[in-house]
Amino acid sequence: MNLKKMPIVIMSIFISVILTFSCKTTAPSLPVEKPSTSEEKEVPFTRVRFATELEKLVSENRYDDALALFDTVPEPDASDSAIQILKLSILISARYLDEAENLVVELEAQYPGNIEILYIQAMLATARADQTKRTKYLNAILKIEPNNASALTGLALDYLNKKNYKQAKTLLIKAIVAEPKNTDALLGLARVYYMESELAKAGDTLNLAIEKSPEYSVLWAERARVKSEMKDLSGAIKDIKKAIELDPEIHSHWMDLGTYLISSGNKAGAQKAFTEALTLDPNNYLGYIYRAGLNDDLGNRKEAISDYTKVCALFPQYHYASESLGILLWEDGNWMGSKKAFLQALEWNPKNASYALMVTLCSYRAGNDKEAKNFMSQYIATLDRSSTEYFLCRLFVDKSSDGDVLNRITKETNVNIKNRMLFYMAMFYDLFGSKSLSQKYLIEITSIPSPTFFEYRLSERELGKTR
Known about the structure:
Layout lengths: L7 H17 L22 H13 L3 H7 L11 H13 L3 H14 L4 H13 L3 H14 L4 H13 L3 H14 L4 H13 L3 H14 L4 H13 L3 H14 L4 H13 L3 H14 L4 H13 L3 H14 L4 H13 L3 H14 L4 H13 L3 H11 L8 H11 L3 H9 L4 H18 L2 H11 L9 H12 L1
């Protein structure tokens, strides 16, 4: 039964109700074959038969069909609290929150103090992002049943989200003492240990949880994260692959696999993992960011451009994607496309003069000299007039005093900043001065070790074209 796709807390309710069905009935098992008569005989309702069919529908994510199945339940079973609680859990999983709220209010009035109903109220509040109401119902449960493991775990996870690890740990340990097999509590405690950098304790706790619930994919994924932090990449990859085997439709499992494969140097495998993740969640910009970089590294230029373009649309404030797109389009000689990308990068990082200079260079290379001068004339008004960047940018407006600008650049002590500026001097000479001077500075730039600026890549590209 694929209950892992449902909220963890609702899952526990669902399982408990299914067990309740099994215990309450003595009905015979489903027949292996239908009677071979000319007329179909009506199959009488039994809870086991109902639960079996419901389990099948939910495992296939057929929530509407699962809810329709409740219409087939006769009285008095249809009004039974166990049946109604089960319907509630499915309504919440299907995100029919208004219908769920109407039903749970009715049930709460009919069964005041019922622990399962109070718990579903807390879960409904969670689904509605109503933290105050969630806390209210979890505390109401603990007033009735102080050692209720699910309520203790729920409150503990709230403290964990607030980074109050001490209080979270206290409640989680209390929950585990009350219910040693509660894997949600064990998972929460492992996360507390992880956040406190007690990785060995986190691993031991997850080992215990996996022993109790080996089919719960999140436990394997969490242990993979711990192993990754402990530099056990092979173990992390093995565990996350187990999580994917158990539940291949969880987006984060594929994302985790991709990051571990990158760390292990398997770029092709990582690219495939992120592709799987994006198949499950096509609008997750982080997957495109990772895959774009991998496609670029693997020489898949067209795919890299496509991925960075997607990031620029989904998450434009991530200016590094616009920067990378601009670089790729510059290398392809697509000056207008590159200019557009660097303009977007500049919009989200207006203090980065490199972006403004790239926009200007694109316009010049496209033959739009007037546009280039007008743009840079406006941009230099935003700069400190005493800065080297101001004089460098002004050079592309006045086209004079290049010696003075070079003198200022050579006084720069930061190697990366100095050589980044030299790239624009090289481009200035390529456009308006000596090609040999341009090549000289490009050679100088590409000779430095460990560069940290994107102009280094462009310098290599430009130098390759002149040789």
